[in-house]
Design brief:
Length: 374
């Protein structure tokens, strides 16, 4: 029932109830009592029925009182409002909730225990807000979550541990954020993930994205779906989908790990040992680490070599190999020609030897005649 109907039943006078009772319409009164029970907890800003509370598009700047929503409410819609913050108890006593839509608001910070009582939540949308940081405890307890939409926010990092309890997640969107790299260990708990959206992010296709690329390939191999992950840096790979970049182009990362102490700073799942040259990802992420916990390469503001150097090495090696091959072919051709000429010369020499023998015999005969005359 809508709010108007609820108000109608709530304004029934005692005289009307007495009339209905004495006319034998007790059944009607019982139906009215049920309807009043459903309407009692529905906020005036929302429209409720037995399964859904729709508070979307009401220009709300704060969350209405939701404590006494109709029992059994499965869906709560708070989309397209002006919400910028939420109290930690906003969704208390709503354990039956299965779908929560907070999209198209102005939320920029969420309390760490905001969703802890929503143990049956299966679909959560935070699409198109102003989120830049997520607390690693935010999704704790959401073991039944199947869909999570974090697209069109300002996220620059996904903190390690944020998704650890979402083993049942099958659909995840991180599209349209400011992500430049992701850690493989952050996503390894998502053993049931089937659909991942990562488009419209400024990806930097360097060593920091290498291990996550391997994880994406594993996800695709087991039947999952990942949209395009287009590189913005380095220039040589700008516009290319990292899924199509040969893994050999990241072999130089192994050498860099050796140079940084055998990957001592790596994380679970073979993640890159270092972040980029600045400590920005650490400060923007929700994971707070002390200086002693940071890898040495981060303290030293280590900066990995561009993939461009790997391409240059391949090109130079190809040119050198080509030159060597040409020289070997030329040497072989010269040897063949020389051997052919020598063989021809030997044949000609053998042909001339009998002729040279006859001339010597005639010369000997003439010398004998001269000596006899003398």
């Amino acid at each position: 029932p809508g709010n108007g109907l609820c108000q109608l039943f709530q304004t029934l006078s005692c005289t009307s109830v007495f009339f209905f009772f004495h006319t034998g319409l007790i059944g009607v009164l019982s139906v009215c009592a049920t309807l009043l029970q459903l309407c009692a907890g529905c906020p005036s800003e929302c429209v409720c029925n037995s399964l859904e509370a729709n508070c979307s598009g009401r220009s709300l700047v704060s969350v209405p009182a939701l404590t006494f929503l109709p029992e059994g409410t499965h869906t709560l819609l708070l989309a397209i409002n002006g919400l910028s913050s939420l109290p930690v108890s906003a969704f208390a006593n709503l354990s039956t909730l299965e779908t929560l839509d907070l999209s198209n608001n102005y939320l920029d910070n969420l309390p760490s225990r905001l969703f802890h009582e929503l143990s049956n939540l299966s679909d959560l949308s935070l699409r198109n807000n102003s989120l830049t940081v997520l607390d690693r405890e935010l999704f704790r307890g959401l073991t039944h979550l199947r869909r999570l939409d974090l697209s069109l926010n300002g996220l620059a990092a996904v903190p390690l541990g944020l998704l650890d309890e979402l083993q049942g997640l099958t659909w995840l969107s991180l599209a349209g954020n400011r992500l430049h790299a992701l850690e493989r260990a952050t996503f390894e708990p998502l053993t049931n993930l089937q659909h991942l959206e990562l488009g419209m992010n400024p990806w930097e296709c360097d060593c920091n994205l290498r291990d996550f690329k391997h994880w994406m390939e594993w996800l695709i191999y087991r039947g999952g779906n990942v949209d395009a992950v287009e590189c913005t840096l380095p220039k040589d790979l700008r516009g290319r989908d990292i899924r199509g970049v040969p893994v050999e182009m990241f072999n130089y990362c192994l050498q860099l790990e050796d140079e940084n102490g055998g990957g001592a700073g790596s994380t679970k799942g073979g993640s890159p040992p270092c972040f980029r040259g600045t400590a920005t990802p650490w400060s923007e992420g929700a994971v707070v680490r002390t200086e002693a916990e940071l890898p040495d390469c981060v303290k030293q503001r280590y900066r990995p070599v561009s993939v461009r150097r790997a391409i240059g090495t391949v090109v130079i090696a190809g040119v050198v190999c080509g030159i060597v091959c040409i020289m070997m072919v030329a040497a072989a051709a010269y040897g063949c020609i020389y051997a052919s000429l020598m063989a021809k010369y030997q044949r000609e020499l053998k042909k001339r030897q009998p002729l040279m023998g006859d001339a010597e015999a005639e010369a000997d005969a003439e010398e004998k005649q001269i000596s006899s005359v003398a």
